[in-house]
Amino acid sequence: MKNSVNIGIIGLGGRGTGMMSVMAKMEDINILAVCDKYPDRVDNAVKILVDGGRPAPMGTVDYNEVLDMPGIDSVYIATDWECHVKIAIDSMKKGIPAAMEVGGAYTLDECWELVHTYEETGIWTMMMENCCYGEREMMVHNMVREGVLGNIVFCSGQYAHDLRDEVAYGEKNRHYRLRNYIARNCENYPTHELGPIAKLLGINYGNRFVSMSTVCSKAAGMEDFVKQHKDLKPSLGSTKFNQTDIVKTFIKTEKGELIELTLDTCLPRFYSRGFTVRGTKGLYQEDG
Amino acid sequence: MKNSVNIGIIGLGGRGTGMMSVMAKMEDINILAVCDKYPDRVDNAVKILVDGGRPAPMGTVDYNEVLDMPGIDSVYIATDWECHVKIAIDSMKKGIPAAMEVGGAYTLDECWELVHTYEETGIWTMMMENCCYGEREMMVHNMVREGVLGNIVFCSGQYAHDLRDEVAYGEKNRHYRLRNYIARNCENYPTHELGPIAKLLGINYGNRFVSMSTVCSKAAGMEDFVKQHKDLKPSLGSTKFNQTDIVKTFIKTEKGELIELTLDTCLPRFYSRGFTVRGTKGLYQEDG
Prior knowledge:
The structure is a homodimer. By secondary structure, chain A is an alpha/beta fold. Chain A is built from twelve helices and twelve strands. In chain A, α4 (84-93) runs parallel beside α5 and α6 packs parallel to α10. The interface between A and B is large, with 37 and 37 residues.
């Protein structure tokens, strides 16, 4: 068994660069390559590693160069949402297991493409749903296993994160959320909530999702935010945002548990995953 | 204008007796009659009034005797859920305005019957939704009017009240919730949440409800509670409860606000109306 892993990092925005810095502190990880479509981000990432005493990685704007690099064991993908799955599939086809950031797939077709690619190649991809490893989430998971909460009836979670700034300044920040919030309306980021809940309810381990419905509010938060910020008016003053402010999704499981997911990113608020687990013997609730 | 009002109280369970005691402290209210189908409750109510220095009211087990009593200005109805509307309509038809407790009507037909009776008689009935007058609810209503929260996008509320004891001991307590929780599955008590929210969003004052959907969990809380209480097993040990533990209802308004209502009465928890109002400028949240 190898004592270290050779990693390529694809996508060097806030998340990719942040995770690179975490990995750079781990002695059993060698960062062989860094990649982003923007050259200045690549240069910045190389500089961070070298300044930190790490060997200079290959820097590139073409992720295929990372996948073709000799000795790469795995790639970590933190690009814009739209190309996570394409890069993961290209990686699997070249025999390289991929670790793919949230949000994951855009369409059901993409989900099936991941399944079929795994079946053809035997190479896995892993969804990097970090909230599955949250301290509170793991604590409650253990409480449920130990029977502390009794028969589980209801779980809820939310991605409740005021992202108005990140979205509205998306041109300046080169952030993919901006175009998504203008063009789409959906639960665009469900896995922070659903990952830990699915684990806890044994989804695909004796239980499964059987039905789903989604409802949403109007879209008012982003337009109001743009109105309050004069510097945004020239580019966004007449923009209609399709993404609604509050999106609620309900999933019923085969064992009868009800799951509630909330997307809440366009209104002023404190950050919260609003994690709640209700059973016949007790209640865990993050807020309240 | 009269300086006092002559009231008859119909229904003398916990709520009716409690409200009678509140009214007995008000100098401008004369309690002329008290009524319940159980004679011991009637005797108890008469005794409370007389012991408190009030004139003895007429006591009866037949509410028609209250409606036919000379000088009655209004009746307060706090019977079991099933007959609120019938008594209110009988009262209106006799020219007596009625005040009807929560939950109100059982069916859409009953709602229309109330409307038609008002149109025929010109006599009103009032839904006694006390949470509309809650301190927090009135505070937030005023904040919304003053524009503090901006453009309102989302409101939620809940009837979150651990009623397992009240329901399970319904035979002993002569409580109507027991038969309802065995026979029905629905959002059986929505007005505590919906009353204040409807006021705040201007429903029927320039805004209206346009669509509704409801989802629910399994029913596990009551059966688990019965199992834990040996004295309940002889009468309820094999009872299937139809009422599910968590019932979520979503209402969309014409102006695009999303409303979420939760019924949560069969699992262990703290009492909360979970009142939340979200706007483009701020957030009010009861828990959290």
